[in-house]
Task: inverse folding
């Protein structure tokens, strides 16, 4: 499939909802490499100073002979992330079901009141391709806005930088994460405080993104811009004065939003904890803030029973079973842990995400250890969670999804910087433990956790209505009143 992981050329607007996201079937070697949960929360981009701004191109329309990834306004739909369906008859196949969605239908098919858009109509969502977390939140917002009769389109802030800028941002981030302690130092010393290096990165990125944002909003005016990526928030704040009546919203799910998320021309911040609200007011004391629950994609509200899920995947009903994953980047010693757990008699769903090397290693392990069932990037996480007794993962949106399905968590402390903040936030919510990073201690923690959580926990009481009601109230704060 053409394009970067998580991006498809072609003019689109956010329409159907996706399932629940990390993609291919067992033994699929076509996985690539980002995250479903830990990394998207950083949200900064880096642009090369030498980047030349290309002429304005209509969203999703590539000029002949150009790389679509370099077109400055390539729309992104989370449901368009390339996935490979499980082969018919392969181990782990089974029916896929999900509620219908459409106008007036929010999360999990929950009916919501519609809003009357402002005269220019429509909403623009700005996400970023550092992993999948931002895209998942953008998808949730798009579903809820479209249920309120708003026309929605989604753009990738990093791709809008043009040229190699977006790919450079991801490469720099990956490189920093790969050096122990480096990203921790940068996050806590620069991003958290708004240090000189962080503000310089913000300024350079905005230098390239602001003209493209101005062109985008002039070509296709909207009433509302929701930034789910810090780079997009900075550019939107800088162009807001040029578009009277434009409402600007920032949605950050981090426990401690860093300085680059906060800008004076933001009308409303959506955060998921009171701690996050206080971090926003550190830099914007008079900020308008709404605390909302983390949205969860529809299929997680209606998973199969554990019995049905296990029968579909061929897992013994009385066996111990773990879902092992670490975002779409697949960080941590997943292969070693999967092998140790399987040796101890535990069935392991091992999800590589977009990490192609990890996917190949897990497939090789499964050839000699039948209790390991490998996946690449799969949309079957709700079914895998339902079949498992325990979810072993890094901090991120997967944690909220596991709580909806009713599974306890064993958290991997492998995401530096904002990931450590978010891990502490998950521990405070309960139903979660944290494990060490080496395979031996992680395996011990997983086996001990299985003893505590068997039989699996029940589903939590929270349903989709909580997000829809909170999101609707937040829209009312910025003048988009549902039902009027």
Result:
């Amino acid at each position: 499939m053409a394009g970067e992981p998580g991006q498809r050329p072609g003019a689109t607007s956010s329409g159907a909802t996706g399932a629940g996201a990390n993609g291919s079937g067992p033994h699929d070697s076509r996985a690539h490499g980002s995250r479903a949960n830990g990394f998207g929360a950083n949200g900064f981009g880096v642009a090369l100073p030498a980047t030349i701004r290309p002429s304005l191109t209509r969203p999703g329309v590539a000029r002949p002979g150009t790389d679509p990834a370099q077109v400055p306004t390539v729309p992104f739909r989370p449901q368009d992330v390339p996935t490979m369906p499980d082969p018919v008859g392969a181990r782990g196949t089974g029916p896929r079901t999900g509620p219908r969605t459409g106008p007036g239908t929010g999360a999990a098919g929950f009916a919501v009141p519609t809003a009357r858009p402002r005269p220019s109509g429509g909403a623009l969502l700005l996400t970023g391709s550092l992993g999948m977390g931002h895209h998942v939140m953008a998808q949730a917002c798009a579903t809820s806005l479209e249920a309120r009769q708003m026309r929605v389109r989604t753009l990738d802030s990093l791709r809008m930088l043009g040229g190699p800028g977006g790919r450079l941002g991801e490469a720099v981030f990956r490189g920093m994460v790969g050096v122990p302690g480096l990203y921790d130092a940068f996050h806590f010393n620069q991003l958290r405080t708004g240090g000189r290096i962080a503000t310089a990165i913000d300024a350079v990125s905005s230098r390239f993104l602001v003209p493209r944002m101005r062109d985008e909003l002039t070509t296709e005016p909207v009433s509302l811009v929701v930034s789910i990526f810090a780079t997009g928030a900075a550019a939107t704040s800088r162009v807001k004065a040029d578009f009277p009546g434009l409402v600007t919203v920032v949605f950050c799910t981090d426990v401690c939003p860093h300085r680059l998320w906060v800008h004076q021309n933001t009308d409303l911040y959506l955060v998921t904890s009171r701690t996050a609200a206080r971090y926003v007011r550190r830099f914007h004391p008079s900020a308008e803030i709404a605390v909302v629950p983390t949205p969860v994609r529809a299929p997680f509200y209606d998973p199969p029973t554990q019995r049905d899920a296990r029968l579909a995947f061929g897992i013994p009903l009385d066996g111990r079973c773990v879902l092992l994953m670490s975002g779409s980047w697949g960080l941590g010693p997943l292969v070693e842990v999967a092998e140790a757990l399987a040796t101890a008699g535990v069935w392991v769903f091992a999800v590589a995400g977009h990490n192609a090397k990890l996917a190949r290693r897990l497939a090789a392990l499964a050839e000699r250890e039948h209790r390991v069932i490998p996946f690449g990037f799969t949309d079957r996480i709700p079914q895998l969670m339902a079949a498992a007794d325990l979810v072993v993962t890094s901090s991120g949106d997967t944690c909220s999804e596991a709580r909806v399905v009713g599974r306890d968590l064993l958290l991997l402390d492998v995401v530096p910087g904002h990931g450590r903040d978010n891990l502490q936030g998950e521990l405070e919510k309960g139903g979660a433990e944290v494990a060490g990073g080496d395979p031996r201690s992680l395996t011990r923690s997983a086996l001990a956790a299985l003893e505590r959580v068997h039989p699996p926990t029940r589903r939590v009481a929270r349903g989709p209505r909580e997000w829809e009601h909170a999101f609707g109230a937040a829209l009312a704060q910025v003048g988009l009143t549902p039902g009027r």
Remarks:
- The mean pLDDT is 77.
- The chain is about 35% helix and 10% strand.
